[in-house]
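Quick one, T. Sequence first:
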Amino acid sequence: LVSLLSTIFAQSSYSVLAIDADPNANLAATLGFPNSERIIPISEMADLIEERTGVRPGEVATFFKLNPKVNDLPEKYCVEHNGVKLMVMGRLKKGGSGCYCPENALLQALVTHLLLERDEVVIMDMEAGVEHLSRGTAKAVDTMIVVVEPSRRSVETAYRIRELAKDIDLQNIGVVGNKIRSEKDKDALISSMPGFEFLGFIPYDQAIVEADLAGFPLVNSSQRVMREVEDIVARIIEPTLYKTA
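Structure tokens:
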């Protein structure tokens, strides 16, 4: 979804910065970036992290900078293809993997800069959760999109994300139904998620699956999927959401 949203916004003459903050980073490939496997995530740039925080990843240190300079990083480390600029963030370390570390300090400062200070469409691809956001950055999020498939586990995850979002006062949540095979799938999601606001429903299309497996860009793999995502973009720009009963 993020690759299609980014492409459609760019085709609509918006300046777009796509952020891959998913540990399983594959946004560059789905956007069709050449040599996408060569893009190094920010979290793996040890020299940069040491330069900006004062501590090299993996080293034990009592102090390091919690607000490192990051305003120049988008221009230095983003790559561009077909009108979409891309930054690959890498994995945030979570509780249990050690204390708050310089990698996290740099990534959190960078996310704050991107959301609060950039004058462009910023689209961030994250794993299920809100780990990259805080109360301060949540206020700058126009819409948090939760992608839900017609399954109990996926619906339960959406409820969990909504509760996590409430903890940081993130109120603007839209839902996109994905891999919808029938009206029954659509109705099942709506009935099982009262109070959620739906931006749209993306149909299941084998052409998307085949393009993904082949490593091809998802853009134009399916015209009916593209049309639905175009409608979703229109609802984001003019928020006339479908609110469930």
